[in-house]
Amino acid sequence: MTLFAMLFPGQGSQYTGMLSSFFKKNNSILTKTFDEASHYIQFNLLKIIQEGPNCKINESQYTQPIILTSSVALYRLWRHQNGKNPFFMSGHSLGEYSALVCADSINFSDALKIVHLRGKIMQKNVMNRPSLMQAIIGLDEKKVKKACLMASNYETASLASINSKDQIVISGDKKAVYKAGLYCKEYGAKSILNLIVNVPAHCKLMKPIAKKFEKILKIIKIHPPKISVINNVDVKCEKTEKKIKNALIRQLYSVVRWKEIIEFMQNKKKIIMLEVGPNKILTNLNKNHKNIVSLNTNTLNSFMKAFKKIN
């Protein structure tokens, strides 16, 4: 038997014109979900994704609700068409909130408020501190870690996400991350890519906002997920409110263990993974896994192909 898992993307998946093939068909479920989200956080998300500008769509306080809403809308469309429920769910960084909403652990309205405020305080925390996130392609974890140590003196550069055996994201102060990237190039990295993110997520620069974020989480209720959600920081499926909240707080400043999450699911048996979001970044990371069939929902055509294959 082949297992089925859903993956939910984080920041970096956004672009102006995303999901346009769905809206051309006047998809009421997606439109209603975006209208609902816009009502809760008091700005027009649909207008931003359709018209931009890019500088706005890439601001964390807008990006985070946009990605969450996109994933929830696509999941609702999947379920409306009686699409199969997955055995596992997992979300990359911000995508963990999408997974928890779709697993009926967090109310959509609560998740929107959380990620909107999360984006705001993350931005505010580094307002006068230039930062950068880079993807290092084609270099192992040990060498990337060494490069970060070499570049960090008075400023920070550290591992932020281990996405696969040959893609690692680093995060921190702009000069230190840039310097670490140069060291990585010297050590043999194939390429260095600047990420479209305006905050240095998953590094110690985010630790000062942990207490403030904990207070935000206290006002919302989290239920045991109806579908197992593998978290980012421990690669575990937590059931209790206390443990889920604790993992979400630590996620702000901890490394995303994505490679281990994929291995955890893959070890069960053959698996189909569906990326539920507006892009195919997570799908592309799975290309070298022989036992994984990777599908995505970034266009209506991709959505329908995946639907036919899985159901």
UniProtKB/TrEMBL annotation:
The active site is at S93, H202. Keywords: Acyltransferase, Transferase. It catalyses: holo-[ACP] + malonyl-CoA = malonyl-[ACP] + CoA. InterPro entries: Ac_transferase_dom_sf, Acyl_transferase_dom, Acyl_Trfase/lysoPLipase, Mal-CoA-ACP_Trans/PKS_FabD, Malonyl_CoA-ACP_transAc, Malonyl_CoA-ACP_transAc_FabD, Malonyl_transacylase_ACP-bd. GO terms for biological process: fatty acid biosynthetic process. One of its GO terms (molecular function) is [acyl-carrier-protein] S-malonyltransferase activity. Pathway: Lipid metabolism; fatty acid biosynthesis. It is an enzyme of class 2 (transferase). Residues 7-299 form the Malonyl-CoA:ACP transacylase (MAT) domain. Pfam families: Acyl_transf_1 (PF00698). Coiled coil: none annotated. One of its GO terms (cellular component) is cytosol. Its EC number is 2.3.1.39. Belongs to the fabD family. This is Malonyl CoA-acyl carrier protein transacylase.
